[in-house]
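Q: I'm building a small set of examples for a reading group on sequence design. Run inverse folding on the following structure and report the sequence directly after it, with nothing in between.
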C-alpha cells in the first residue's frame, strides 16, 4: 500500500507539472471532488476489491515546482475495521505522504482545448520517514481554458515485497483470517485541475538539458527524452543508481569506465577477460549485438537495431550519471 501511495503521488505530480500556461502567472490546484486515486487487492485468490484515498491536495507554482499531499487517514476500503487496521499496521504514526518535484511544462504550453499529450515526470516522495525517487508516465487532456484532466497512461502494478510491505500485509491477513492477500497491487489515477490566477511573480527556470561528461568520456550527443523512453527496456535488469545492482550491474558512470568494474556484481568470465573500456564506440557495438562483441556474456539481449536509438539511449544514461 505504501508503494501505491508513492507512485500514484508521482502520477499526480506529473499532471501538475504538465499543465501550466506559457506566459501567464498561474498556478493549478487539484480538484479533490473530481479526482480519484484507486488501488486494488485480491484475497482468497478470487475475491477482487477496489479501494481509494478520499483526500488529495496540492499545487503547482508557475515555475514548475510541485508540492502534493495525500491524506493517508482518508483511505477508504469500504470496511471500517479494515480502514482502521491499515492505518494502525501499515501507515502507523504517519498521517501524510508529501511529494516535491520540478517539472518541464514546455510540451503542453500550446495545448488547446480538446488536445492531449503523454508526459514523463521524475520527483521525490517523503513517505513514512524515507525519501523515494519516482518516475511515471501520464496522459493529459485540456477540458477547458481553466480545466484539465490527467489519468494513468497504463495500469501500474506494484510489488509489496519491493515496497517493503510484506510484514504489514501478513498482519492484515492474519487479523482477517485469510489464506492469502495478493502481493501485486494495481493502481489507477484520475486527476482534475483548476487554474488559479494569482499573478505571483516566479523566477524563470531553464528547461534546457545539458549532458554532463563522466570522467574522461566525451559528451554524447543524442535526444535525451527519446533515450529515457528507450531506457524503460533496460530497467528490468539495470539501475542508474550508484551501487544498486540487479540482474545486471548498475549503469551509473558506465560511460568511460572499464568493463566488469562495478563493485559487488558477479560478471561472466568473458566480460572480465574482455579488456574493454566502455567508450561510445564499444557501447554502440555491444548494444547492437552483445554476444557478437563479448562471446559468453551473461546479457540475454538481442540488441538495438538503430544506431541513432543507441546514441539517444547513451545520451540519457550519461545525463543521469
Amino acid at each position: 500500500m505504501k508503494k501505491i501511495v508513492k507512485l500514484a503521488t508521482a502520477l499526480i505530480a506529473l499532471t501538475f507539472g504538465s499543465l501550466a500556461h506559457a506566459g501567464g502567472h498561474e498556478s493549478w490546484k487539484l480538484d479533490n471532488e473530481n479526482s480519484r486515486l484507486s488501488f486494488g487487492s485480491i484475497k482468497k485468490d478470487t475475491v477482487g476489491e477496489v479501494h481509494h484515498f478520499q483526500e488529495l491536495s496540492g499545487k503547482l507554482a508557475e515555475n514548475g515546482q510541485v508540492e502534493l499531499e495525500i491524506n493517508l487517514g482518508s483511505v477508504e476500503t469500504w470496511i471500517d475495521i479494515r480502514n482502521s487496521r491499515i492505518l494502525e499496521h501499515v501507515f502507523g504514526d504517519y498521517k501524510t505522504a508529501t511529494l516535491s518535484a520540478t517539472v518541464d511544462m514546455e510540451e503542453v504550453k500550446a495545448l488547446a482545448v480538446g488536445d492531449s499529450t503523454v508526459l514523463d515526470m521524475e520527483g521525490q516522495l517523503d513517505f513514512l520517514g524515507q525519501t523515494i525517487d519516482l518516475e511515471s508516465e501520464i496522459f493529459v487532456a485540456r477540458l477547458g481554458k481553466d480545466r484539465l484532466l490527467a489519468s494513468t497512461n497504463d495500469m501500474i502494478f506494484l510489488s509489496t515485497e519491493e515496497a517493503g510491505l510484506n510484514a504489514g500485509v501478513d498482519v492484515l491477513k492474519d487479523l482477517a483470517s485469510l489464506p492469502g492477500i495478493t502481493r501485486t497491487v494495481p493502481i489507477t489515477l484520475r486527476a482534475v485541475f483548476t487554474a488559479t490566477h494569482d499573478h505571483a511573480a516566479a523566477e524563470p527556470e531553464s528547461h534546457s538539458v545539458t549532458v554532463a561528461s563522466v570522467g574522461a568520456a566525451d559528451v554524447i550527443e543524442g535526444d535525451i527524452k527519446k533515450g529515457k523512453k528507450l531506457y524503460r527496456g533496460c530497467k528490468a535488469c539495470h539501475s542508474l543508481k550508484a551501487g544498486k545492482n540487479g540482474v545486471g550491474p548498475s549503469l551509473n558512470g558506465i560511460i568511460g569506465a572499464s568493463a566488469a568494474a562495478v563493485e559487488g556484481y558477479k560478471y561472466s568470465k568473458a566480460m572480465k577477460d574482455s579488456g574493454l573500456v566502455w567508450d561510445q564506440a564499444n557501447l554502440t557495438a555491444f548494444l547492437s549485438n552483445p554476444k557478437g562483441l563479448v562471446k559468453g556474456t551473461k546479457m540475454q539481449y538481442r540488441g538495438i537495431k538503430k544506431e541513432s536509438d543507441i546514441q539517444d539511449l547513451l545520451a540519457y544514461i550519461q545525463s543521469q550519471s
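The radius of gyration is 22 Å.
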